[in-house]
Amino acid sequence: MMSQTNGITTAIINNNNKININENDTNCDNDLEVLQNLQTLVPEIKQNFILISQQFTQFINYTKNFNKLSSTIQLMQLQQEQLEKELEQLKKDQVDINKQLEINADNRIYLDVGGQVFTTTIRTLTQQINSPFFKVFITEKWNKTNSIDNPIFIDRDGRLFDHILKYLRTGELIIEDKIVRKELLIEAKYYKLQNLEDDLNLMIKKEESFINMNPFSSTSQSPPCSPGPMINRSRSSPYSPIPTPNNIVRTSPFNQSLPLKSKPHPAQTASSWRSCVSSENRLNYFPGSLLLTPEYEEKLIEFMGNDIPIAPQDQTWQLIYRASEHGYDAADFHRCCESYAPTVSIIQTDFGNIFGGFTSIPWSSATIRADQADPTAFLFTLKNTFNISPTKFPVAKEYQQCAISHNPTCGPNFGSPKNEGSDLCLRNRFNDKTNCIFFPKSYIDTTNQGGLIFAKKYFACKEVEIYTLTNNN
What we know:
Pfam families: BTB_2, TLD
Number of helices: 10
Structural class: alpha+beta
InterPro entries: BACURD1-3 (IPR045068), BTB/POZ_dom (IPR000210), SKP1/BTB/POZ_sf (IPR011333), T1-type_BTB (IPR003131), TLDc_dom (IPR006571)
Strand content: 15-25%
Shape: extended
Distance between the termini: 113 Å
GO biological process, one term: protein homooligomerization
Protein name: BTB/POZ domain-containing protein
Number of strands: 19
Keywords: Coiled coil
């Protein structure tokens, strides 16, 4: 309501936003116009007020959500700090456990497995780095009162545990019964023995591959072709950088008699029958291997790639050396492998890791150590304790001139001692812990795990296989 006294205009705004004006003199025209303009602004002012009210409500909600988020972040930070403390404590506990296991490593432990009592040592049960089951088990169960009359009970099959205990003691797996192998595979998974599980899977796959490749194995029928003599290899190789006289001939070591073996070497039979199997039905590229699964073989072919000018379907990789057959000395290696090229060296450690190296130049036993250039050389890992997938490690460009080292007292030797140590070297008596790894030196580490991707700095070989390439054409 507006009013005018003594010349002042009186205006009344009713409930319908209409303005009633009483004019008392002629000077009220301008005031009337102002009021009319104000009347037109009222709806807009109301709309702005509503919008401001909505925005204020949104701001209140944002503030509430922000406070909730801030509280959540603080809670997560506290939880992270707690987890870090727990992780640090777990690491300390693990160190303490390992110390206690090492202190008591030679103490006897008595186990009752399914009614059968076994006596062994803590060291035997815990020495495999891929078997955490027994570390936890011994920490929780074992104490000084453990005895033959008070054994620790494990509710599993004692008959199968006998095989497991033999494997833990020797690292060897000799099981002829197929059913026992499959039963033992279940036990290996229960005891979390990854190495044993891998070895059993490899044995089963190799057996299945041999049955599929040799349809005559289950019948008395003779094969359509009999094994023929191995083809002699000339010392001159298309992959060798240094040509040698053509009148020097190399004979495969598998043509030689094996005085300690009454049956043919597996590689000899597989190589001889290779021509009877069509290329599209071949199950592996490295016949006779006891270390390579079909997946590992495919990876090796992939790693070599363009370094091998022969297409995979035209390749026949021939086994020329197996340490368990021909001996673990450097002299045995040179006797079987000199002058062959290219070669793939496949190594299995006493802990079950599988790795090796490739070179396109022939090995030799010079009277003194000599470095050799090979830009195509590389190292590889197939099975490792980090569970990293098969990986190739190429030689560094600046060290290609010393990619390989030849030495009469060493077997396969990748890298040069001049470069602060060989990346991988098998020394005399391969099955002793004298072999060494100084990787990465001349070769490139693409995993950032260092030499442990292969084995410990000094390690023993359980098996070594070396293959050379022949052309089917």
